[in-house]
Amino acid sequence: MNYCPICGTKLNEAIVDQTKVEKCDSCGFIDWNNHTFVSCVVVAYNQQREFLMVKLKGQEEDKVTFPGGYRNHNEPLEEAARREFFEETGMTLHEIKLLDVYASESHRLIWVIYEGQIDRDVFIENDEVKSVFFVNKGTKIDESTLRGNLTKKLLMQVLKSTK
Fold first, then answer.
1. Cα–Cα distances in Å, from 43 out to 31, 60, 110, 112?
2. Residue ranges of the Nudix hydrolase domain (predicted)?
3. Same-domain status, 62 and 86
4. C-alpha–C-alpha distance, residues 13 and 94, integer Å
5. What residue numbers bound the domain in which 45 lies?
6. Which tens digit of pLDDT belongs to each residue from 132-150?
7. Which has more pLDDT, 102 or 33?
8. What's the number of CA atoms in the CB half-sphere (13 Å) around residue 2?
9. Which helix (H) or strand (E) holds 86?
10. 85 vs 69: CA distance, rounded Å
């Protein structure tokens, strides 16, 4: 952050409580550089209790993960989960409930994970996702294609709980 979110003045480096921060000399605002990004992720099931995963496009071409993405400022978490799921799949969800929360300190990222039932499972092509596929306990997934450690952790958790 370069400018104060309160008054718009350029922030300057300072030391506060023995910590390097960015401080506004006009109003006293302190940026402690402790921002955390929040991503809402969905484990979505079809009628056969298989769960949906996505294969990405672009910079992370062919990486596999669960549908989801960053929450907009002031957006309710469940709304963000539904919106991101729709944006990445074109599908809607019947009911969703909170499943878990993961954190990655190195990425300053929190995953708020929901699970739910898909209303209709027809993929609509978009800018972020190349394809979708359904996974069951017998599905083989090459771990080198997984997007990252949080994807791997969630996949293992869901597979363990899948009957």
1. 35, 20, 16, 11
2. 33-160
3. yes
4. 49
5. 37-161
6. 999 998 999 999 999 999 9
7. 102
8. 0
9. helix 77-89
10. 8
Residue 16 has pLDDT above 90, yes or no: yes
Q: How many domains does the chain have?
A: 2
Tokens of 131: 């394809």
The closest alpha carbon to 134, from 55, 28, 60, 68, belongs to 55
Task: Kindly state the tokens that stand for 57.
Answer: 């496009």
Do 1 and 30 belong together in one domain? yes
Map residue 107 onto helix, strand or coil.
helix
DSSP code of residue 67:
S
State which amino acid sits at residue 151.
T
Q: How far apart (Å, rounded) are the C-alpha atoms in residues 13 and 24?
A: 9
CA-to-CA distance for 159 and 42, rounded, in angstroms?
Answer: 14
* Token code pair at residue 144: 């080198």
